[in-house]
Amino acid sequence: MSALKRKRGGNGKGPKAAKKVKIVENGSQKQKDTPVEDPKNEYNVPAPVSMGKWTNKERVLVFSSRGINFRTRHLMQDLRAMMPHTKADTKMDRKDKLFVVNEVCEIKNCNKCIFFEAKKKQDLYMWISNVPHGPSAKFLVQNIHTLAELKMTGNCLKGSRPLLSFDPKFDKEPHYALLKELFIQIFSTPQYHPRSQPFVDHVFTFTIADNRIWFRNYQIIEEDASLVEIGPRFVLNLIKIFQGSFGGPTLYENPHFQSPNMHRRMIRLATAAKLREKQMVKELQKMKKLEEKEVVSQDVTDDVFATPSEEKPVEVEHEAPPLMKMKKKKKDKEFKRQRMRKVMKL
In the prediction, which pLDDT does 138 show? Predict the structure, then answer.
């Protein structure tokens, strides 16, 4: 048997010679080669995607530099799974300049790019860019939670179209309005994309809080229209917005941004100050112990509880009061009676 016939669906005519399945109106499946009595009752299985014209051909390249950790790798895979219009590429060398990314996007026929840049094996930066003319934005990525974590209980169809929900603050400031347009062009699935599905079952939310952009992905439940988080989730801390793609004049610089190196330095300085304070307290205690103690002749605290008493006249009574005399006589009588009884018994 030839190699082509050993393949699944191979009839000796080539690798694409698979049998086409057709469905008759009564629901039974029949092969193409089998004769059918009435060919008018046959119809082909429709494609899962609407047969419209694919006009918006946005393609997003999602890749990273070398040195990323496992969490960043899973985040990239989640973004590629959520966005059917993405493409992948091999990791870029850290020695290369960022302008090389424009050439990689041109080779891959992509006009948008999400590039993850790792530094010191602990800091993650994300670039989003409109290739090749710009603009582009650089973010510090924080608080990453991937799709595979058990906290995310939602689910959605692969390749489905998302709804994009933006915070009202995006329309109030110009740099947020520019980022909103970039997010819309990158994260929205083009209509009639070959790998997309004609369903809307999840929402991408972009919220501004604490001068950062919070990304969340929620599933839409049909029963009560509530939302369940799917994931991934991450926080974008804006650093700069450039006019060109991966460089050029700076359009906006975040005044609230603090670099991770400076943040770690401030933490180290705070811990060092605490240790110095503890050491100074210990030294002061040692100095107090070594000092000579002064012997005080009179204690100042002795007079704290000394209270003046009332002066009373001193009178010495030589006789007992009358009540005491009566009680003494009764006791003497009882003693005599008890003594007489003992004598009588004897």
Answer: 96
Q: How far apart are CA 57 and CA 45, in angstroms?
A: 26
| Tens-place pLDDT, residues 302-326 | 777 777 777 777 777 777 667 666 7
For 74, half-sphere exposure in the C-beta direction (CA atoms, 13 angstrom radius) is 13
Distance between start and end Cα atoms, the chain: 141
Mapping DSSP to helix (H, G, I), strand (E, B) and coil, where does residue 107 land? helix
* Strand, helix or coil for residue 248: strand
Please, which residues have CB within 8 angstroms of residue 67's CB and are 6 or more apart in sequence? Answer: 94, 118, 119, 121
Residue 58: which region, alpha, beta or left (left: phi > 0; alpha: psi -120 to 50)? beta
The answer to whether residue 109 scores a pLDDT higher than 90 is yes
Residue 134 CB partners (closer than 8 Å, separation 6+): 242, 243, 244, 245, 248
Helix or strand (DSSP H, E) at 31: strand 29-31
pLDDT for residue 1: 44
In this prediction, residues 252-264 reach a mean pLDDT of: 94
Residue 128 near residue 86, CB atoms below 8 Å: no
Asked whether the beta carbons of 249 and 242 are under 8 A apart, the reply is: yes
Residue 232 falls in which region: left (phi positive, over 0), alpha (psi -120 to 50) or beta: beta
Angle CA 78–83–88, to nearest 5: 70
**pTM of the predicted model, to two decimals?**
0.67
Pairing status of strand 86-88 against strand 60-64: parallel
Predicted confidence (pLDDT) per residue in 41-85, tens digit: 666 655 555 567 888 888 999 999 999 999 999 999 999 999 999
Q: How far apart are CA 138 and CA 253, in angstroms?
A: 10
